[in-house]
Amino acid sequence: MDDVRSDILLPSGRSSRLGLTGVLTGLLLFLSPPAAVPHSGGPTAPRGSAYMGVGVRAHDGGAPLAGERSAGLRVTQTEGVDVSSHQGNVAWSTLWSAGTKWAYTKATEGTYYKNPSFGQQYNGPYSAGMIRGSYHFATPDTTGGKAQADYFVDHGGGWSKDGRTLPGVLDIEWNPYGASCYGKSKSGMVSWIKDFLNRYKARTGRSAVIYTATNWWKDCTGNYSGFASSHPLWIARYASTPGTLPAGWSTHTMWQYTSSGKTVGDHDKFNGSLSRVRALANG
After folding, report:
1. What's a Pfam family in this record (predicted)?
2. Which pTM was predicted?
3. In this predicted model, what pLDDT tens digit does every residue of 143-174 receive, in sequence order?
4. Residue 62 to residue 64: CA distance in whole angstroms
5. Could you give the domains of the chain?
6. SS3 for 89?
7. Which sequence positions are flagged as catalytic?
8. pLDDT per position as a tens digit, 234-261
9. Which burial class, exposed, middle or buried, applies to 74 when counting CB atoms under 10 A from its CB (0-12, 13-18, 19+)?
10. N or C: which end of the chain has fewer CB within 10 A?
11. pLDDT tens, residue by residue, 29-73
12. How do beta strands 78-83 and 8-9 pair?
């Protein structure tokens, strides 16, 4: 813009640098993309950047309380991992050799984001010998539960009875882009989750796994217990035990126990042997 004059002639005939400033400011505001939404837990986060456990360390991490129960923790557990675009190409053979036997990959978020690394991150563990699945990061403030379930199934969230594909996961937790409960009432949140789960079951024939943290579930659903009878629970808590579970669940199926596991990604434990992981894959 070297040829732009610094003295703009105003109607009164006076030149002013202020006039140019106003013109350029208005042009920049017109051309600039919408800013990412700030959230209470930290700096601005761009849409699509969320991942499993994005708010757990800030809101829920810590050592267990004295006398806290283990929430049905079995002696035999099977190591797993969950990844998103933040991890890029993952060394799946290294994870397999280190004892990681199952993996979940972020497929979608809302109805506006698909993981650009999904192909390598979803097919890679399968090729390495793992049992794999995919998850959807829910944004109940953008579109309805039914629409997001459709988007998930259409972009990597489906299921096939091949013995090595796990049912899809609804990742419902703290909002990294705004209010923790996405601006919904407790009953409104329960209705949104119900719409997602019902639609996923209708599309795939499987009940989706629910990934959440107990404190978020209490705050945002009123500790609703109605999903526990038919949906496996993946509990998030970075401590030495899973802690108290949301209402209705007497035990958990999976537990995200750290955000800094071996090799890459968040690490998890399946509450049972590898044969139980296969059983969940088979339905």
Report:
1. Glyco_hydro_25
2. 0.81
3. 999 999 999 999 999 999 999 999 999 999 99
4. 7
5. 1-28 (no CATH), 56-282 (3.20.20.80)
6. coil
7. 82, 171, 173
8. 999 998 899 999 999 999 999 999 887 6
9. middle
10. N
11. 333 333 344 343 445 688 887 777 777 766 776 544 444 455 666
12. unpaired
Residue spans of alpha helices (H) in the chain: 17-31, 56-59, 92-97, 118-128, 145-152, 186-204, 214-221, 274-282
Q: Please work out, in degrees rounded to the nearest 5, the angle formed at the alpha carbon of residue 22 by the alpha carbons of 19 and 28.
A: 140
The region, left, alpha or beta by phi > 0 then psi within -120 to 50, assigned to residue 19 is alpha
Alpha carbons 131 and 122: distance in angstroms, whole number: 10
**Cβ contact 37:177 at 8 Å:** yes
Indicate whether 120 pLDDT > 90.
yes
What confidence tens digit (pLDDT) does each residue in 169-186 have?
999 999 999 999 999 999
- Distances in Å between the alpha carbon of 225 and those of 68, 191, 193, 212, 245? 21, 13, 12, 13, 11
* Cα angle 228, 114, 84; round to 5: 70
Residue in this structure with the two tokens 């958990």, named with its chain if needed: 252
For residue 97, count CB atoms less than 10 angstroms from its CB and return exposed for 0-12, middle for 13-18, buried for 19 or more: exposed
Handedness of CA 140, 145, 148, 152 (dihedral sign): positive
CA atoms in the 13 A half-sphere facing the CB of 122: 21
Task: State how far the Cα of 196 lies from the Cα of 81, in Å rounded to an integer.
Answer: 24
pLDDT computed for residue 54 by the predictor? 72
